[in-house]
Design brief:
- This protein is mainly beta.
- It has one domain (2-103): Nucleoplasmin core domain (Jelly Rolls).
- The protein is built from no helices and 8 strands.
- The protein has a 4-stranded antiparallel beta sheet, with no helix packed on it.
- It is elongated.
- Its main location: nucleus.
- Pfam families: Nucleoplasmin.
- This is Nucleoplasmin-3.
- Keywords: Acetylation, Chaperone, Methylation, Nucleus, Phosphoprotein.
Length: 132
């Protein structure tokens, strides 16, 4: 599970994995919400990552305000580490929750597993017309 809190004093949190790790990692963001002590101001949370050209990009994923939208469900918004969550506006505190999945490459099979080979498949009898 992933959990972090962004505040006026801790405006960012970076999730990264060991570069020598040979596994595939998926980080999924489930919920972003204001917590105790939040003011009635706009709190904008951005996700900072790298695009296909390895340039840094920042995308706002939540704009929370205590009086109208204190919580946002992101339905397991999937990201590939390394990724930084940044409080771009507001003073928080904003809590982020999600999960981290590790897929070991030697365990992952990209080939379709056929339970039955051609020799094992049952032959079905031909369909006969109904008797009158």
């Amino acid at each position: 599970l992933l959990g972090c809190e962004l505040t006026a004093s801790t405006k960012s949190y970076t999730f990264q994995v060991d570069e020598e790790d040979d596994s595939d990692h998926i980080l999924a963001l489930s919920v972003v919400c204001l917590t105790d002590g939040a003011k009635d101001e706009c709190n904008v949370v951005e996700v900072v990552g790298r695009n296909h050209e390895n340039k840094e990009i920042a995308v706002p994923v939540a704009n929370l305000k205590l009086s109208c939208q204190p919580l946002l469900s992101l339905d397991n918004f999937k990201l590939q580490p390394p990724v930084t969550f940044r409080l771009a506006a507001g003073s928080g505190p904003v809590h982020l929750a999600g999960w981290h999945k590790i897929m070991h490459r030697e365990d992952a099979s990209f080939e379709e597993d056929d339970d039955l080979s051609e020799e094992d498949e049952e032959e079905l009898p031909p369909i006969m017309p109904a008797k009158k």
